[in-house]
Amino acid sequence: MAELTVVVVAFHGAEKLDTCLEALEQAAPVVVVDNSSDPAVETVARRHAAAYVDAGGNLGFAAGVNLGISRAPSGRDILLLNPDAVLTAPGLRSLHEALHAPGAERIAALSPGLVDPVSGQHQQVRWPLPTPGRMWREALGMTRLRVPPLEFCVGAVLLLRAEALAQVGGFDERFFLYAEETDWQQRAIAAGWRIEELPSVIAAHEGAGTSTDPSRREVHFHAGTETYIRKWFGWSGWASYRAAAVLGALLRGLTLRGRRGAAARARAALYLRGPRSVADLPVRVSAAGRRIAHVVVTDAFAGVERYVCEVAREQAARGSVVTVIGGDPQRMPDELGSAEHRPAASVFAAARELMALGRLDVVHAHMTAADFAAVSSAMWHHGVIVSTRHFAGPRGSTFLARALGRLARLRIDQQIAISSFVAESIQEPAVVIPNGVRSQPDEQRAPRDRVVLCLNRLEPEKATDVALRAWAASGIAGDGWRLDIAGSGSQRGGLQKLGEDLGVRDSVRFLGQVSDTAALLSRASLLFAPATAEPFGLSVAEAMSYGTPVLLSRGGAHPELVGDEAWTFTPGDSKAAAGLLRQIAAMGESERRTVGNMLRDRQRRLFDLELHVAALNEIYTSPQH
After folding, report:
1. What letters, b where the CB count within 10 A reaches 16 and e where it falls short, cover 244-282?
2. Nearest to 556 by CA among 434, 405, 472
3. CATH number of the domain within which 582 lies
4. What's the rounded mean pLDDT across residues 196-207?
5. Residue 348: how many CB atoms within 10 A of its CB?
6. How is 563-601 classified by DSSP, letter by letter?
7. Which of 133, 138, 178, 202 has the lowest tally of Cβ within 10 angstroms?
8. Would 347 be classed as within a structural domain?
């Protein structure tokens, strides 16, 4: 059983902190992080033999927690304890033992039951994870019409397992106050952990005991919710959530009288203005933040550029100052969030932008041209150069490019391959770090459409013609199924002609380049990926994150992605693929959903974006030639 450290983040309130620490009876080491730099807090902490950390200002709860964890010995379970909560030493021991009891190995966070110290009434510990859909149901009074959703435990007294902390990471410091524990538990659930309450252990919790301004507390609560919804559901999810919150508050404001009606109307006004804008939260860069430049020398927006945007957004969210050089100048800024974009469609332009940025901690190059830009400007940026190999085969497509690539390799500090398939084909040493995609929260989804989806560039290496031939041979269009082909490329005209020749024009839709892949993946019943030598398969990983079943060739890195949990066929064998299509179409919705859920679990374990970014950070910290 791992040892335990208690972390308390205080903001004034020395008297409550004194009561809190007195109850623990020094049953475990305690770290007190003081966000108020209050001498009275320091006096109380030292009287109870706790380690005292002056944060130097109000960093917010999430940053305070991370600071406290950093002062604890590594590999320890962490009890997060509010100063206005009281947990006795026997209760602490019981909670810790329960976390390590047989059968509890996958519990990431454990909370005791909570009671009000004055009234003795039990407080609600478990709450549903917020989603736009749930907010709409609340606004319309329909919350009882649904199976209970995934839940998290409030963070007043929360025991975190060391192994889960190591995998999930610390708290997201974008959250200033409220919802940070919700976000951490959502990340843990997405990684396959459980969240539990132990009602047999009771802690007293005053609730809002560290705040003297109820209206300000209300604003911070909803600002935290806004940060959470924006992170997990994006801009459109927040727009939907906000509209539902305004509608629900207005309806209550019109029907309720007195203080309750006034409070509802005030909440509607708060959401109309935007909780984070009203809260005017400080913007802070983590002390561990780096200056990172990602370089991709194109003016396009395909798989590599999409991957770079996701990684850059996540790194910026973790406190790094991130610039992306290259990619489609129209699409990239919209996809990058708080990361900066600078266009560069040539090696010279990319090198010039790197020089203009000055000193950098890391220059992360993607594809050969970006390698040349990173190396040629090294004497200006002085950063660690990391190169990700996204494609199979040696660096460079011509003799000159290959020769220059070998010279550039001498200056590259670390090389990453996105799959074992790529690593084996590049004929150079490389660390395999599979690409990651953002894990999606579990939602009770409506029945999926009878749609088979191809999501790839329409180029020869993607073998979309195999999908068309298999579709025609399967005959499932007669049962109401449709094939949607999303993507653009040089083969579109030829593929449309092939569809006409095969007699399937009426059951096949060519959607062209699409921006909202989430909508397609969440509604389709199957993703069809026929590429014969895919270096990774980003669309396959994204389909897995949405619980969408996959039919794919056993070429390239595909077997690494899906293991034994998807339908596969020999590359190019459209007849075998057609047979699998008929088999899949004949299944019930629940059978296909079971396969999709297995794939989603695999994606969360192996191809999660946050795990991927954590692995990149390790490479950035300890590069080697």
Report:
1. bbbbbbbebbeeeeeeeeebbbebbebbeeebbebbebe
2. 434
3. 3.40.50.2000
4. 92
5. 13
6. TTSSEEE-TT-HHHHHHHHHHHHHS-HHHHHHHHHHHHH
7. 138
8. yes
